[in-house]
């Protein structure tokens, strides 16, 4: 066991500690050229020795293989991370994205070429528009949060074009994901917090009081991050529109709506999809992901360029967009991720996509039914959507916290749910099983959580014991993160 800095406790030795003197992974042949000294070769540029460990080839291979196994993955186990939705990535989509014609396509290929890929992207655009009830979709953004930024830029461009540049504020419910206010701030919009009502939903009277001529619009997550469907969503959208604002829909939770309801039908003007949450693509840590943005016709002229259009049976990029806000991403977005989303959508078809949603909601409500006698369920009067929200209120009486339960789940071999989010609910555990999990997995998970909830604080405080990393001092790790190994 190795007590590291920032409270990190590694339960296994790391590479740097395994290194020995003069161990070699390769045997190079004798040099048959004149030997130039490091000093002659590099002169004053010679760095001090980086002090790298010396290891044999098998030791290096085992080290990296072991590191890869420390990574918890969906291919390895249940990953019920609420709000972040870790969806199983079907292997068929990997095969499709790696087909030579797609994987080797070059963004500078001549006009008129790559018709197969362009048609796929065009179809994906249209499928996403159909699924969401929007008029058109832009595939460029590289993540959901990037889609948020683009959506807000479009809202600003719309108001400015109409000469309504006083609208510099955006309403965001207090249960929203942190990326919503950050996107607003990057877009030079002031984020104004809209307090939720006691039932966890948007309160129409409060909204009515807060809407004024400075408000550019509202960012709504539906179902919201408490896993509740905004039942008055149509009235909310109507009210915002009546006062000159636009409605941004954070589509992170589309997994509870696909094939059942469409944001475009209940009043959204612009939304983003998180392809990893809904269409089973890899997440990409906000990096090589995708966050397509759907818009109603009023925002279409402002979309980033180029846009894909079909002319005379051919699909081509169109840069002739005088009112476009410009570009938000090099080339055309993360095409490999978009191919995976297209594959998922086309392999399920309309009926399969609807069933996906129904299964996701059923799985969450099944877990809720298993757990509600043992844990506090806030806003119990509403049915859960695709994720179930619990708190540690009852276990707190026994000095057991949400954090203890999460660490206990790691010890039991699970990825913990999202904890202490949404911020509006104390001691929150947000559990999202997704549609692919079996009844047996859900039963076992619920049983494990129930048993952990009955344990005492001292027993849980020592966990995890067998995971690669033990308890972290969360405050130190946050305030003084150590991002590289120090012997
Ligand atoms: C509700 C909500 N909105 C936005 C985002 C941001 O999405 P992304 O991680 O793709 O940037 C997330 C991410 O988990 C989310 O849960």
Please state the average pLDDT score.
Answer: 92
CATH superfamily of the largest domain: Type I PLP-dependent aspartate aminotransferase-like (Major domain)
- Proportion of residues in helical segments: 25-40%
What small-molecule ligands were found? Answer: pyridoxal-5'-phosphate
Number of domains: 3
CATH fold category name of the largest domain: Aspartate Aminotransferase, domain 2
Question: Between the first and last Cα atoms, what is the distance in angstroms?
Answer: 14 Å
Low-confidence stretches: 1-6
Beta strand count: 14
CATH class of the largest domain: Alpha Beta
Largest sheet, strands/sense/barrel: 7 strands, mixed
Main sheet: which strands, in order across?
A: 3-9-8-7-6-4-5
What structural class do helix, strand and pairing data support?
A: alpha/beta
Question: Which descriptor suits the 3D outline?
Answer: globular
Count the DSSP helices.
18
Strand content: 5-15%
CATH architecture descriptor text of the largest domain: 3-Layer(aba) Sandwich
Classify the oligomer. single chain
Organism: Candidatus Lambdaproteobacteria bacterium RIFOXYD2_FULL_50_16
Keywords: Oxidoreductase, Pyridoxal phosphate
GO molecular function: glycine binding; glycine dehydrogenase (decarboxylating) activity; pyridoxal phosphate binding
Protein name: glycine dehydrogenase (aminomethyl-transferring)
